[in-house]
Amino acid sequence: MKNEQILGTESIGKLLLKYSVPAIIGMMVNALYNVVDRIFIGNIPGVGPLAITGVGVCLPIMTIMLAFAMLVGIGATTNISIKLGQGKKEDAEKIIGNSITLSIIIGLLISVFGIVFGDQILRIFGASSSTIGYAKSYIYIILGGTIFNVLAYTLNNTIRGDGNPKLAALIMIVGCMTNIVLDAVLIFGFKLGIQGAAIATVTSQIVTALWGLMYYARGKSNLKFHKSSLKLDKHLVEIIFAIGSAPFAMQLATSLVQVISNNALKIYGGDLAIGAMATISSISMIFLMPIFGLNQGAQPIIGFNFGARKYKRANKAFKISALISIVILTAGWILIQTIPDVIVGMFNKDPKLMEVSINGAKIYLLMIPIIGISITGSNYIQSIGKAKIAMFLSLLRQFILLMPMIMILPKFFGLDGVWYAQPVADFLATAITAFVLYRELKAEKEDEKVHKQEAVI
After folding, report:
1. What does the radius of gyration of the chain's CA atoms come to, in whole angstroms?
2. Which parts pass through the membrane (predicted)?
């Protein structure tokens, strides 16, 4: 297949441009799903601060939904790249059908469980009597569309792994534009408020999921979809889950941290602090999504070349990705430190909420220039199929280091302690990831030398 040959021969720089730029656009568009919702919700006349706090309470639930989408989507796409690198096209095609079935089953289970136990979950996740009404109005509609959420994410990933990153980005852009237009129409035109935002989000996810399904159903894809591949294969499910478990665990850990964070914010800063975190996480998302897009573009390049024992090419893809991420995140840091009022002001103009949000953003995002190393580094380990190490590195920044910080620092620094927890965890995680990467790249060099000697013999 032409795309397979290109992954192993074309210059890494050109490949990253081809695969990452559309993926970055796609991820930025994906970020806009949530960011635009929060901008519109935060500006609902009279209830903006409480409404955006209601969305903040829902963040852990939405993170859990993303975790399951990543379990299937990233697990399937990484395995497709590795299988293609090994020349096993038939297995790669079977993975597509299995990932569709898994998305539907998992999406349905989340919907049922979330709706049945929603009230109790929201209380545990930090909802107060003032905000639970807004949270319920939003999340129950989102939960009703979980199948489309998971399916849209999975198919968008596999389409990119299929060698069609431009289409994957286009689908995301159309979905986001649908969301933005419907947000404006439903929230302000039809006066549906926070429910309008949720309906807009679910509708846009239905559009992207159906488009992804049509791509394979029409038979124009490089990897062909066969109805028989919808039947779950135990081995394929296991390898999808094995690779997808790293980002899945990271997102689950993130959700748990968000729950602990929400409760700490509620204790030390009240409902407004939870609303501020919803704003800060949106700002963080704007700057981090290009890095996740870069990772997605690099993934098939790293996976294929590692599978084909072309270690230098795989390493180069990582190094360029890390450098670009540092540049992007440093630019983001400068904006946050110099004009935080402009950025925060997009989400809400309430003076008290703005004050809390600006202070929190400047502290919380203090270390973002260096975390690109941590994020691209764990992506490299994941892309070469080392799931356990990748899981450990992924959990470091968002759980292993962060959770103790959230529990300890507020006791000494109050609300500021909740904000400081993230940069402290970021610094330590980056240092540890850099050490693990150094050892991994060194081991690959030794393996390459041995392989060359064996080839000569």
Report:
1. 22
2. 16-36, 48-74, 95-117, 137-155, 167-190, 196-216, 236-260, 272-295, 316-336, 356-377, 389-413, 419-438
